[in-house]
Amino acid sequence: MITLDRQHSWFEQQLAAGRAQSLPQAPQWLQLAREDAIEAATQLPLHNRQHEAWRYTSIEGLLRASFTGDEQAHQQNQATIDDLLPPESDSHRVVLVNGQFNARLSTLADLPPGVRLESLRTALAADPDLLASWFGSIANHSESIFSALNTALINDGLFIHIDQDIELQQPIEVVYLNSGLNLSEDKQLMMHPRNLVVLQPGAKATLVERFVGAAPSRYFHNNLTEISLQQNAALKHYRIQDESRNAWHLSSISIEQQSHSDYRGVTLAFGGAWARTEYHLDFNNEHASCALHGLYLVGDKQLTDFHLTVKHRAADCRSREQFKGILYGGGRAVFDGHILVDKDAQRSDAQLSNHNLMLTRDAEVDTKPTLEIYADDVKCSHGTTIGQLDPQQLFYMRSRGIDETTARSMLCQGFAQEIIDQIDLQPLREQATERLVASLERVQPEIGR
Q1: Are strands 194-199 and 234-242 parallel, antiparallel or unpaired?
Q2: Is the CB of residue 279 less than 8 Å from the CB of residue 308?
Q3: Are 307 and 339 in contact (CB under 8 A)?
Q4: Domains: count for the chain
Q5: Where does the pLDDT of residue 215 fall: very low under 50, low under 70, confident under 90, or very high at 90 and above?
Q6: Band of the pLDDT at 188, cuts 50, 70, 90?
Q7: DSSP 8-state secondary structure symbol assigned to residue 419
Q8: Residue at 429 is within a domain
Q9: Contacts of 179 (CB under 8 A, 6+ apart)
Q10: Is 360 inside any structural domain?
Q11: Cβ-count burial of 214 within 10 angstroms (0-12 exposed, 13-18 middle, 19+ buried)?
């Protein structure tokens, strides 16, 4: 059973294990942020069913695990890295191996003027005052023990800064290669990459994030990203989480939008034993918009959790959140989506939906889309569905000579393809479709249990 003392003790253990790896010679403002995060973690409530944000997702298994931040544990052999690295793409690629920037695998040449794309360590050493303007101003480390841990143990990550009115033609691709293959079973690796993305007024870019893990390895990937979209800025943001099936994965993305900015995100979740993705989005000025689409495929011994908080604080903003899940075996999913419309956010337009396809009797989903509205001139809706494959559709396809296994896969793919098709990059869209089809083919023996 989790107690508050146990939670605090675990936090202290991770601090002790990770301090040797945290950024050396950090600027004073970062040192103060670390101290604030450590202090905040001692004041946070217990993350259990009494805590609304963690009502359906237990952290008990994570608190029982033992992690290390030892420098040698982060070193991986070249064969492991080559096996994990996705195919080359027409992009500016940044590779982080176990949370640390790898210059040899990254391709940062030929960046246009006005675009900064570099490791967080490099940016902090070269221009710490610039980062101080945004660091911690969007994400709040006092709300979650894991955000506090990330702030306290920052080691590396990514800094993206695009100047005013610059449109970056090639996408930025960030690949997180995670592996703990050289560790004993009683000690797992942990990494806490921190990303800061700033698009100045009128800037436009596409950001692709891939999370890839060596199949049998156990580790804890605790990622925190802050995104600032200034007036008229636009960001397309695609994320594919395909961690090891033995890993813990936690991503927290905080987005702040100014007037007439546009955020379009697609997030796909396939991997992890315990995986949680949080989106915290604030509309701080009028006429901003966001569209967030998500797909999760969850099977035996997997928990996948999506937690969304969208705050309409200004008038005339538009948000769309659509998530779909396919569950099989004993897989379990959580969807917790919350839209808040403040009293001054008149003429807000918000839609939130979550649809789930259950392929087996043992699969489980907890879904809770909610609206909290204090303005009187709004257009808002939310809804959720949980269902199985339509027997009539299966019968129709089988009557046309399609075998049952193929028919089931085709129906599942049709259900999911609406989300994948939101990806504008054709090679990435095709890779995501191939990953989905391969997964559906593997799970066929478990369907109908």
Answers
A1: unpaired
A2: yes
A3: no
A4: 1
A5: confident
A6: confident
A7: H
A8: no
A9: 76, 80, 84, 97, 98, 189, 213, 214, 217, 219, 244
A10: no
A11: buried
C-beta pairs of 102-107 under 8 Å, 24+ apart in sequence:
102/177, 105/81, 105/175
Q: How far is CA 359 from the centre of its chain?
A: 25
Q: 4-18 and 28-43 are packed helices; what angle lies between their axes, rounded to 10 degrees? A: 160
Contact 305, 280 (CB under 8 A): no
Residue 348 DSSP one-character state: -
DSSP state of 262: E
Size (the chain), residues: 449
CA atoms of 143 and 354, how far apart (whole Å): 25
Give 77-100 pLDDT, tens digit per residue.
565 677 778 888 889 999 999 999
Tell the residue number behind the tokens 């979209």, with chain if given.
229
User: Which residues, 6+ apart, have CB-to-CB distance to 265 below 8 Å?
Assistant: 236, 237, 238, 239, 279, 290, 291, 292, 293
With respect to residue 433, please indicate whether it lies within any of the assigned structural domains.
no
Are 305 and 336 in contact by the 8 Å Cβ rule? The answer is yes
DSSP labels, 187-209: -EEEE--EEEEEE-TT-EEEEEE
Q: What is the pLDDT of residues 275-309, one digit of tens each?
A: 999 999 999 999 999 999 999 999 999 999 999 99
DSSP code, position 353 = E
- Between the two ends of the chain, the Cα-to-Cα distance in Å is 31
Predicted confidence (pLDDT) at residue 74 exceeds the cutoff of 60: no
Residue pair 365/395 in contact (Cβ under 8 Å)? The answer is no
Residue 304 near residue 334 (C-beta atoms within 8 A): yes
CA distance 25 to 35: 15
Q: Do residues 374 and 361 make contact, with C-beta atoms less than 8 angstroms apart?
A: no
Residue 202 lies in a domain: yes
In whole angstroms, give the CA distance from residue 309 to residue 148: 19
Helix axis angle for 145-152 and 28-43, nearest 10°, is: 150
81 contacts 203 by C-beta, under 8 angstroms: no
pLDDT for the residue numbered 143: 80
Domain containing residue 55: 4-285
pLDDT, tens digit, for every residue of 247-267? 999 999 999 999 999 999 999
Vertex 17: Cα angle to 13 and 21 (nearest 5)? 145
204-213 β-sheet, strand order: 100-101, 92-97, 172-178, 204-213, 234-242, 262-269, 289-298, 318-327, 349-358, 379-387
